[in-house]
Design goal:
It is built from seven helices and 31 strands. It is of the alpha+beta class. The chain has two domains: about 35-230, Clam (outer membrane lipoprotein receptor (LolB), chain A), CATH 2.50.20; about 230-425, outer membrane lipoprotein receptor (LolB), chain A. A hairpin with a 7-residue loop joins β4 (about 85-90) and β5. The longest helix has 25 residues, at about 1-25. The radius of gyration is 29 Å and the shape is elongated.
Length: about 425
């Protein structure tokens, strides 16, 4: 029996010794950093890379944590549906006492489950949106050298469940986070690293991680089916489409118009072939296959294809058709829709992340009481437009039944006529 206890004691000591060796080999001291404008600039670079402006206007986020805790977060309403096992809490993050608790779909009074849901949400939402929180109240930002490059050390001095935790963000050249190192109360080993590279561009335009990998034993943290979207903005966009008879636009096969009297268009929308005419030049443009495009001078077919003219015709069509049909394109690929207040009313902010000639442009649509666009403000960095206004006037119901504008006006009384607008089936 003495021999047995002796063996157990030796094994126990070996286990302790192994743990000490592991702790010493893995534990890192919290690095020293420097506060100031350089740290803030690096934090701002990360926010811009993550599209923080879109995060501010994101309405709903969905995810799960390790396939155990499930969330639907109504961010701007400060409400979260938290569920795990047989429990569900409709959590009010501002006033937890107003939260509702359900067990097996039966409402109960259980403050303990509210506290549990709060702790789960504080932890699990951090693993989803931490980069967007670097300027939250109670955060300290320091710049640190990590492997010869600048890294961002964030310390949370208050808020959440464990104030005092620190995270060292390791960034790529663009400012996107690659990983972070942690010094937290719940993990006794400092400097454990977690990846932040499995990023997904969501419907609302923000980048969210779908999983993480920890340096500690290669542990995986799946985030489930990550989503973010703006249902209120989408609802307004659908009302606009209904008001301008978008269903009829989808059936429209031919559209004709001119642009300020300078050029004219005949668009075979069904086949997506556009005849663009200006001066003595006519380009029959095939936007989906530019090699098939042809050029006419004084109505005579050119035997050579001037690529510069084809490019010019493409750019003209992209610009001039936008002034005719932009509201019909609200749900095309690469568009982010969000709500912005303008004069106390909801306006629809539309940002183009791809397509056209100048991706990155944004337009704030102002609507009448029937949800027909009456004007917009243009945010076009390439043209140094920061909210330049223009009206959408004299909408007509075309032969095909869809609505299209026939003119626009700008500051200083300038007008832009779309000519004799026609749309047929």
């Amino acid at each position: 029996m003495k021999r047995f206890f002796k063996i157990v004691g030796v094994l126990f000591l070996l286990l302790i010794l192994t743990g000490v060796i592991f702790f010493v080999s893995k534990n890192e001291a919290l690095p020293m950093g420097k506060k100031g404008k350089d740290a803030d600039a690096l934090a701002t670079k990360m926010l811009q890379a993550m599209n923080s402006e879109a995060y501010k206007s994101t309405e709903v986020l969905e995810w799960s944590f390790r396939n155990e805790h499930h969330y639907k977060w109504f961010k701007n309403q400060n409400k979260v549906r938290v569920s795990w096992g047989k429990n569900k809490v409709e959590l009010n993050t501002i006033s937890p006492s107003k939260s509702r608790v359900f067990i097996d779909n039966q409402e109960v009074d259980n403050p303990t489950l509210i506290a549990t849901a709060t702790a789960y949400f504080n932890n699990d939402s951090f693993w989803l949106v931490a980069p967007y929180k670097v300027f939250d109240a109670g955060t300290e930002r320091k710049i640190v050298k990590h492997q010869g490059k600048d890294a961002l050390l964030i310390t949370y001095t208050l808020g959440g469940t464990t104030p005092g935790d620190s995270y060292l963000w390791i960034l790529g050249e663009s400012g996107l986070p690659i990983s972070f190192k942690m010094w937290t109360q719940i993990i006794p080993i400092g400097g454990i690293e977690a990846s932040w590279s499995s990023l997904k561009t969501t419907e609302s335009g923000i980048l969210l991680p779908t999983s993480h990998t920890l340096s500690l034993f290669g542990m995986k943290l799946p985030m489930g089916n990550v989503k973010s979207y703006n249902p209120k903005a989408n609802a307004i966009a659908h009302k606009i489409l209904k008001a301008i008879k978008h269903d009829n636009y989808k059936k429209t096969n031919h559209i004709e118009w001119s642009f300020g009297g300078r050029r004219t268009y005949k668009w075979d929308k069904a086949q997506h072939i556009v005849t663009v005419s200006w001066d003595s030049i006519r380009v029959v443009l095939h936007p989906n296959n530019l090699e098939k495009s042809s050029i006419y001078y004084y109505n005579k077919l050119s035997t050579t294809k001037n690529k510069q003219l084809i490019t010019k015709a493409t750019n003209l069509f992209n610009n001039d058709s936008f002034w005719l049909v932009a509201p019909h394109k609200l749900f095309e690929k690469g568009i982010i829709r969000s709500i912005q207040k303008e004069a106390g009313k909801d306006a629809l902010l539309v940002k183009y992340t791809s397509g056209g000639t100048t991706p990155g442009d944004a337009y704030l649509w102002l609507l009448d009481e029937d949800f027909i666009p009456k004007s917009y403000k243009m945010f076009v960095p390439s043209m140094k437009m920061e909210g330049t206004p223009a009206t959408w006037d004299q909408w007509i119901t075309t032969e095909s039944g869809t609505l299209l504008p026939t003119s626009h006006s700008f500051g200083g009384g300038r007008k832009l006529s779309m000519g004799e607008v026609k749309a047929t089936i």
